[in-house]
């Protein structure tokens, strides 16, 4: 079972006419509303500090996207917790508002592809500086918009002493509770029962009240496979068979190729994993996925279902945006097959 990649890929590429997106356009959050696909995408230029912002593009067919403006839509704050960069938006809708979880750093990361794995620029600071500052930790916050023009930053979602990204909200409550996926990098070792960063779940009755809630281990990687390190990818989709969840897996303990798997979670108890694809349904193949700032990376951050078709939007090689599709029922039938059942 493989998702079918669009013959228009990459559907969005860096724009040399705009400095803020001249080097990178990747990892988009996408939502479909009233006949329009809205895409917030990660963008950066070739500046030494590597400031990362969000651009906005729209489409009527889900394939051909057009930039809304030559100016970015959402960027780092001037002096707040997210003043370094904003990254990797995931979008869900409640009522008439779109809620966006996004990763951030207090300082820009620098041109990380020139550093060792998982190394970013660090600020000069005193010994009493908070860990989030001194280590320039990646963290996650929440923003809201009703029109993708005006945004309100609602605040930090995750602990300031953890590198905690791939934070994704479920688009509906479960038993009156909001549900959040997250991937704290430090939750490894004997106390946590996992060797590599994994997917965890929290429940809350408020969209901002997560830090003191208990984390439940949902899924962990598999030693010696394409998915040793795993993390959430796109907002789960509620189907008649349960929650369809796409996730990314990384070989070699998190230092190799990024691929994509799918899992089916119980509709009423998302801590129960019903099935899981043994092999990736999306993986790097083409030059735009294998040659870039991270060679060999497909990283979905947006998915929608329109007229029975699943659209999956992904970052490719940390430089481009790709699209892959399949009939939703085809993927669900595969997940219900004996090959995937746990």
Descriptive notes:
The structure is a single chain. The protein is mainly beta. The chain contains 3 helices and 21 strands. 47% of the residues are buried.
Topology:
Layout: E1 4-5, E2 24-33, E3 36-44, E4 52-59, E5 66-67, E6 85-94, E7 97-105, H1 131-134, E8 139-145, E9 151-156, E10 164-169, E11 178-184, E12 199-204, E13 216-219, E14 229-232, E15 237-239, E16 242-250, E17 258-265, E18 273-276, H2 287-290, E19 298-306, E20 309-316, E21 320-327, H3 328-335
Antiparallel strand pairs: 1-21, 2-3, 3-4, 4-5, 6-7, 7-8, 8-9, 10-11, 11-12, 12-13, 14-16, 15-16, 16-17, 17-18, 19-20, 20-21
Give the H and E element order: EEEEEEEHEEEEEEEEEEEHEEEH
What's the shape? globular
Which architecture does the CATH hierarchy give at level 2? 5 Propeller
Structural class estimated from helices and strands: mainly beta
CATH T-level fold name: Tachylectin-2, Chain A
**Strand residue percentage:** 35-45%
Measured distance between first and last alpha carbons:
17 Å
Oligomer: single chain
CATH superfamily: Glycosyl hydrolase domain, family 43
CATH class: Mainly Beta
Low-confidence stretches: none
In short:
Helix content is 5%, strand content 41%. With 342 residues, it is mainly beta.
Task: Give the key terms.
single chain; Tachylectin-2, Chain A; 342 residues; 21 strands
